[in-house]
């Protein structure tokens, strides 16, 4: 379906797990992350849709415009890198791609064990500049790196109507 099919779907989902899913985990509240993953957001989760795949691991990015933009930019960065020349990416990340598919790794992620992924985050930071389009997307992605480095979870309690400056006609409530 779309431009990504069959085994390639599994490969791109593994890459998204490495480059988007784990960084999301690192700024989530561990308890919220673990309870959310009872029904949504398990590592490797995706749906096939007519245009490709819907990656279902990250929490709602709607609560923070800056971080949401950063995570969308990360997904675009890794997808474009994979689409442009997947062989070097596959070779560079071969061990990590096998690691991310390991059941113990998935269990650690799904239960919100952030400490198990700090080593990967250092490698992740090292890989990003080698991705196709890094210079064009760096500005959007740097706030994600800064948030991870701060050790602070992102604020999921923000009112998305305010964050996105949405206004309803008078008399209607969100």
Keywords:
2 strands, mainly alpha, two-stranded antiparallel sheet, globular
Characterise this structure:
Strands 1-2 form a two-stranded antiparallel ribbon. With 174 residues, it is mainly alpha-helical. The chain is globular. It contains nine helices and two strands, in the order H-H-E-E-H-H-H-H-H-H-H. The protein starts with 6 loop residues before the first helix and ends in an 11-residue tail after the last helix. It has helices at residues 7-26, 30-36, 65-84, 86-92, 94-100, 103-110, 118-127, 134-150, 160-163, and strands at 46-49, 52-55.
What is the number of strand segments?
A: 2
The biggest beta sheet is recorded as: 2 strands, antiparallel
**Helical fraction:** 55-70%
How many H/I helical runs? 9
- The mean pLDDT is 83
Q: Using only CA atoms, what is the Rg?
A: 16 Å
Q: What would you call the structural class?
A: mainly alpha
Topology (elements, then pairings):
Layout: H1 7-26, H2 30-36, E1 46-49, E2 52-55, H3 65-84, H4 86-92, H5 94-100, H6 103-110, H7 118-127, H8 134-150, H9 160-163
Antiparallel strand pairs: 1-2
Helix pairs in contact: 1-3, 1-7, 3-4, 3-8
Summarize the structure.
Helix content is 57%, strand content 5%. The protein is globular and about 55 Å long.
């Amino acid at each position: 379906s779309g431009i990504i099919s069959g085994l390639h779907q599994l490969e791109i989902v593994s890459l998204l797990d490495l480059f988007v899913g784990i960084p999301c985990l690192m700024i989530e509240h561990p308890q919220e992350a673990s309870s959310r993953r009872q029904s949504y957001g398990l590592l490797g989760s995706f749906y096939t849709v007519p245009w490709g795949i819907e990656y279902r691991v990250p929490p709602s990015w709607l609560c923070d415009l800056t971080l949401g933009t950063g995570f969308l930019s990360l997904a675009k960065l890794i997808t474009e890198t994979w689409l442009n020349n997947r062989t070097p990416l596959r070779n560079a990340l071969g061990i990590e791609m096998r690691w991310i598919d390991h059941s113990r790794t998935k269990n650690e992620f799904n239960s919100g064990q952030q400490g198990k992924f700090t080593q990967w985050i250092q490698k992740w930071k090292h890989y990003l500049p080698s991705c196709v389009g890094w210079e064009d997307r760096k500005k959007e992605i740097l706030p994600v790196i800064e948030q991870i480095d701060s050790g602070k979870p992102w604020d999921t309690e923000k009112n998305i109507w305010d964050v996105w400056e949405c206004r309803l006609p008078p008399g209607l409530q969100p």
